Amino acid sequence: MSIRFDGRVAIVTGAGGGLGRCYALELARRGAKVVVNDLGGAIDGTSGSATMAETVAKEITAAGGVAVANHDSVTDRAAAQRMVDDAVSRFGSLDIVVNNAGILRDKTFAKLELDDFQKVVDVHLMGSVNMTKAAFPVMREKGYGRIVLTTSSSGLYGNFGQTNYAAAKLGVVGFMNTLKLEGAKYGIKVNCVAPTAATRMTEGLWPPEVLDAVAPEKVVPAVVYLCSENCPTGHIIEAGGTYFARVAIVEARGVVLGPQASAEDVAARYDEIADLSGARTFDSGLEVATNILKALSTAAV
Ligand code: NAI
Does the residue 200 lie in any domain? Predict the structure, then answer.
């Protein structure tokens, strides 16, 4: 069944280039009216210009789609609110927000200035929060919304020199894990994409012969799916090249050590405690607490 977005309105942040541009073009090609947001700055988030967002918005309209450019920063709460208000007043609604804007300020933790930690958290985590905070009431009111957040393998697994970026990128996963619960009864689904693509952000990482294989367009199917009516909620999809895989936080089956449990017992049975065979996912912290109580009562029998 083909996925269409006729009558839907989407905001894509950081859509003036790289992955965001590809998402915006495809959402528009499939019928969505798109707000193309991009600060138009350098990779470290400094400076800004309207050109990047405007170029992509023009590309969409030239192809017969509907788009408007916005060059505000997602770190500006008032601007995030204005972006949502403008989308609603211009296009009548807001159904989809793809939080994609991002910057890099890589350095090992020992050498990293905390201002550079803060700035990266401000853009990736707080930028997503600002946009979502403005969009959520509109979606709640209409009983429908799709929010896509952008995480990264750096946050999910770690990457040397990226403590700031990794913390921000796993922060959005925590944000999703609770927002999916709070959005469920209003028809709001929240998911993450963990992309891998050759963009200015990953320049120099890939040898020239694989650039086509990991072109940003290859990530688009995952994001289009996560914007669609029948997407899951609370999922993370890793997407790079034409590789797609769900990523999940899992918990080992665990061991009940009993009321006298000591640090020595933990050490002695650590292989069992850490054994991930038969590991499970949970949908909420409440489910984890219930599982612990069940394990305790089963062990007591
Ligand atoms: P990119 O640098 O081409 O795109 C990021 C865009 O965000 C830029 O156009 C930039 O101007 C815009 N931007 C930066 N700060 C902004 C702000 N405050 N407000 C509005 N726009 C702002 O890089 P790419 O690769 O397309 O990255 C897109 C997203 O994917 C980012 O969140 C990035 O962290 C994430 N990502 C990318 C990976 C890759 O392999 N390319 C890997 C994992 C995650």
Answer: yes
Ligand 1 pocket test: pick from 11, 19, 130 the residue with the most ligand atoms within 8 Å of its Cβ: 19
Rg (CA), the chain: 21
Same domain membership, residue 198 and residue 60: yes
**Spacing, Cα 300 to ligand 1 middle (Å):** 51
Distance between Cα 102 and ligand 1 center (Å):
4
Q: What angle do CA 155, 156, 158 make, to 5 degrees?
A: 60
Active site residue 165: yes
Pairing relation of β-strands 236-240 and 188-196? parallel
Mean pLDDT by 10 residues, the chain (301 residues): 96 98 98 98 92 97 98 98 97 98 97 98 98 98 98 98 98 98 98 97 91 97 98 98 98 96 98 97 97 93 58
Which helix (H) or strand (E) segment is 233 a member of? none
pLDDT score at 301 = 58
Quote the strand ranges of the chain, DSSP E: 9-12, 33-37, 66-70, 96-99, 145-150, 188-196, 236-240, 243-247
The pLDDT, as a whole number, for residue 1 is: 80
Domain hosting 218: range is 9-247
Pairing mode, if any, of strands 188-196 and 33-37?
unpaired
Looking at the fold, whether 240 and 288 belong to one and the same domain comes out as: no
Q: How far apart are CA 148 and CA 96, in angstroms?
A: 8
The DSSP letter of residue 176 is H
